[in-house]
Amino acid sequence: MKESTKTVVFQAGKEEYAIPILFVISIEKMEGMTAIPHMPDYVTGITKVRGDLIPVVDLEKVLYNRDIQADDKTRLIVVETSDISLGILVKDAKEILEIPQENLKQPGLIAYQNTKFITGIANVEKRLIMVIDPDTLIQSLEGIKEIKDYMKSQKQEIPY
């Protein structure tokens, strides 16, 4: 049996990206977000998903340094990393796609500090899809420790 990686493919900017499905908890419509003052500019706020408060990261802000233009296709991909659960705001969640290992190439940019979270580029049906490792993405974000600490304090304050 050939190895492959099952991923959730989504759009940010004009490009297609993918996150391995092992990290994905759910894909939600964007609604009910609460802004939090003094957070890094890539954090749009927090939202409640299935009873849990999670921070929401605007992937367009992280990748392209511009705010996402939200519309009815905008989705929140809820991911669980080793450190934190969070929502990743994307332009459109397109599909679940099985990427064969032989279609996955290591990008030459892997050593580049600002894009080390892009772990591979998949060439599938004349499409180039960049694969993101959410653990590495989270670790590369400035101020993430403060966000994790804030979310822990919020969890302790919420009565169940």
UniProtKB/TrEMBL annotation:
GO terms for biological process: chemotaxis; signal transduction. InterPro entries: CheW, CheW-like_dom_sf, CheW-lke_dom. It holds the Pfam family CheW. Residues 4-143 form the CheW-like domain. GO terms for cellular component: cytosol. PANTHER family: CHEMOTAXIS PROTEIN CHEW, CHEMOTAXIS SENSOR HISTIDINE KINASE-RELATED. This is Chemotaxis protein CheW. It comes from Mesobacillus subterraneus. The lineage of its organism: Bacteria, Bacillati, Bacillota, Bacilli, Bacillales.
